[in-house]
Amino acid sequence: MTEKEKMLAGLAYSGRDPELVHDRQEAKVMCHRFNLADPRDTQARMAILAERVQFCGDAHMEPSFYCDYGYNIVLGANFYSNHNLTILDVCKVTIGENAFIGPNVMISAASHPIDPVERLHGEDGAPVWIGDNVWLGGNVAVLPGVRIGHNCVIGAGSVVTRDIPDNSVAVGNPCRVVKHITPSEPSVVLAGD
After folding, report:
1. Cβ–Cβ contacts within 10 Å for residue 28, how many?
2. Which of 66, 91, 131, 190 might form a disulfide with 109, Cβ 3.0–4.6 angstroms?
3. Which positions are annotated as active-site residues?
4. pLDDT tens digits, 131-163
């Protein structure tokens, strides 16, 4: 099994592997180009990210954006992120439709062993999944292996260390559910209105 295969599987791997070093460098070049691109040419800026990031519909990202690899990121339709989004995508990071990401958010699928000797020799990770209609407030941190359900709001400054169920408002460090919400029905527009 290659180091890249181990990484993608969430197993311990060496980030010093030449293939992974190359992939990270290419992702940094992509982010650099995006971050320095003309902010008035949104289509060209987003095309730069689409070289590696999988967009499943319209998306808008403000600069600056940073990632480890890019090819492990899947973003649903109608995605928006404010300034300074960082996604450490050593494993798959999937974000659903209609996601709104506040400024200075960090989503990390990357982790390191607690044991200091093991930490010198490798790292690991776990996938992150974020559902549809989720809003992450500014300065939120989402940690490896977390699943955030559909229709959730994560309050500014929260550190999400464990799963958050659908239809929740969650806040704090560590992030905890403080309220359950019932999504409203879509408005029906009648003819003549």
Report:
1. 14
2. 91
3. 112
4. 999 999 999 999 999 999 999 999 999 999 999
Radius of gyration over every alpha carbon of the chain, rounded to an integer in angstroms: 18
Listed residue (42, 116, 44) closest to 81, CA to CA: 42
User: Which pTM was predicted?
Assistant: 0.93
Distance CA 186, CA 170 (A): 24
The pLDDT of residue 193 is 46
- Would you say residue 190 lies in a domain? no
Residue 184 lies in a domain: no
Count of domains observed in the chain: 1
Give the mean pLDDT of 3-26: 96
Closest CA to 105 of 83, 74, 75, 89: 83
The CA angle 136-141-147, to the nearest 5 degrees, is 70
120-134: string of b/e by CB count within 10 Å (b at 16+)? eebbbbbbbbbbbbb
CA distances from 134 to 69, 98, 127, 184 (A): 23, 7, 17, 15
Q: What is the mean pLDDT of the chain?
A: 95
**Residue 65: CATH number of its domain:** 2.160.10.10
Closest CA to 96 of 123, 57, 61: 57
Look at 23 and 118; give whichever has higher pLDDT. Answer: 23
For 102, 107, 125, the CA distances from 152, given in Å and listed in that order, are 14, 16, 24
181 contacts 167 by C-beta, under 8 angstroms = yes
- State which residues form the domain around 90: 3-178
